[in-house]
Amino acid sequence: MYPSEIMTILILFHMSHYRDFKNFYLKHIWQYHHRDFSTLLSYTRFISVAPSVLVPLCSYLTQLKGKPTGIAFIDSTSLSVCHNIRIPRHKVFAGIAQRGKNSMGWFYGFKLHLVVNHQGEILALKVTAGNVDDREPVRELTTELMGSLYGDKGYLSQELADDLAKSGVTFITKKRRNMKACMQAEWDKIMLKKRFIIETINGQLKLISQIEHSRHRSIRGFMLTVLGGLIAYCLKLKKPSLEVFYSEDAVPMMA
Fold this sequence. Notes:
Elements: H1 3-13, H2 21-32, H3 43-49, H4 54-64, E1 71-80, E2 98-102, E3 105-117, E4 122-129, H5 138-141, E5 147-151, H6 158-166, E6 169-173, H7 186-193, H8 196-207, H9 219-234, E7 244-246, E8 252-254
Parallel strand pairs: 1-5, 5-6
Antiparallel strand pairs: 1-3, 2-3, 3-4, 7-8
Domain Transposase DDE: 65-219
Pfam families: DDE_Tnp_1_3
Protein name: Transposase
């Protein structure tokens, strides 16, 4: 099979209603699309050659990234690779995955760090071990960013905000309750409340694009799952978005 055909099947899975790839391949692709792929491989053979398209998938995902609009949101989400009770027996990601903690509790696996614009398009992303601080990859993720970047309390850091300001990025985060009140533009207060857009995107990536599950048998399989799910999301015609327009004075406003 051509690499493009392998990529197509992998991405189609993440756009389907199937919850595991084997059933999708045998009950959907093999039965209904056998003629569309003249050299369709057996399931076992397909699984063995699928990792060969990791680099092309990365390249394709890069091409699908959105463009900065001056309004961006940053967040991270956990990618658990096994149930907590099985952590001591887990071997597939031993030495790679790590224990992490989010608002839902402890998990074992990785973190997906995302930066999106107000149109729901992915601008930058990075996968790290589960124990990496959310603030650590921010500088790397914002190298091509401009305008305002909104994050939650987990990104609070005056040093980080000062560094980003030097490159033209205004980093705005929520304040903790025990912190002194500070002046904040009304627009920024509104945008901080609109952070649900990136939380919605993370939810769609997990529930619809299926980038998280506990059945991985190799690190390459994990990478194929994440890449396929991200590409499937990028190809969606309708993404979570905010209606923002600009006045004659170039002042952003909500519809």
